[in-house]
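Late entry, written up from scratch paper. The run itself happened at the end of the previous shift, but nothing got recorded in the book at the time, so transcribing now.
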Amino acid sequence: MLATVLIALVALIHVYIVVLEMVLWEKPQGRRAFGTTPEFAAQTRVLAANQGLYNGFLVAGLAWGLWLGDAGFDIKAFFLLCVLVAGLYGAATASLRILYVQALPAALALAALWLGW
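Output as recorded:
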C-alpha cells in the first residue's frame, strides 16, 4: 500500500514536471521553477518540450505499472529505476535540487516496492 502511494506521488511529480516543461516553460511559473530568463526560455522551449515528453513517458510507465497492480511489479521497478537514474544524473549535472525532488522520492518508492510495503 505504501509503495502504491509513493509510486503515485512520483508519477504526479512528473505530471507537474511535464506541465512545467511543455506548457509553462516560458511563463513566469515555469521560469521561476527552473531559474531561467525570458530569453533563455524562448531559445530553449523546443528542448524543454522534448524533455517534458520524456518525463511523460515516465508517467505513462508508472501509471501502467500501477494499473497492473501486483502483476506490474517489474514495470514499476523499471520505471522507478529510470526516474532514479535520471534524478541522479540531473543532480550531478544540472541542480542538486533534482536529487530531492526526483531521485529521493523514486528511491523511497523503489525501496517500499521491493520491501513489499
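The chain has one domain: 2-115.
(Scratch paper discarded after transcription.)
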